[in-house]
Specification:
The protein has 179 residues and is mostly helical. The protein is built from 6 helices and no strands. It is globular.
Length: 179
């Protein structure tokens, strides 16, 4: 019987069929992980929604739940073998969900560390969301242009990630509780 180490070992040179089989199986496993991750995000988002509905003053729970819900759509698109919508439309919807999700993560971090959400930050998030939705949906049949929009959409995502890291480090330096 084959062991895990034999199964995952790099195939011998010249055995193209075995190499193709191993590559195929690894790809299936990787895709399944994204679907599982999407399911976990949905489950955790329901928990965060329930936390919010039990105490509506906990706005950070609502932001966290919305972020997880949107990112789960993106993860599902990466890992699903068959889409729910047509391929191009599902791809556009999923790619819209990534910046939307990270915008809610920004709101979550700001709310959680006690920063007030300014009207400018809220307006910027929703304007960027609307802009990316319009761009993705209008370019749904133009794959090259959609890829360019996706790359541009990564810029605000990187900003949110850097902001989150800096905010958490600052909170740790100030010895704030619950961070």
């Amino acid at each position: 019987p084959a062991t895990v180490f034999e199964f995952t070992a790099v195939p011998e040179t010249g055995n193209k069929e075995r190499a193709a089989t191993i590559n195929y199986l690894k790809n299936i496993i990787n895709l399944r992980l994204y679907v599982i991750l999407a399911a976990l995000c949905v489950f955790i988002s329901f928990f965060a929604f329930s936390q919010f509905f039990s105490n509506r003053k906990e706005k950070s729970q609502l932001m966290y739940a919305l972020s997880l819900l949107f990112i789960s759509v993106y993860f599902y698109d990466i890992g699903a073998e068959h889409g729910i919508l047509s391929y191009l439309i599902q791809r556009a919807v999923a790619r819209c969900c990534l910046p939307i999700s990270l915008g809610y993560i920004l709101f979550f971090i700001m709310n959680y560390i006690g920063k007030n959400l300014s009207k400018r930050v809220i307006a910027a998030k929703y304007l960027l969301d609307a802009l990316f939705i319009i761009l993705y949906m209008s370019l749904v049949n133009n794959t090259a242009a959609s890829e360019t929009v996706f790359l541009v959409a990564l810029l605000p995502i990187m900003y949110v990630m850097i902001y989150g890291i800096v905010a958490i480090i600052r909170a740790q330096i100030r010895h704030e509780k619950d961070i």
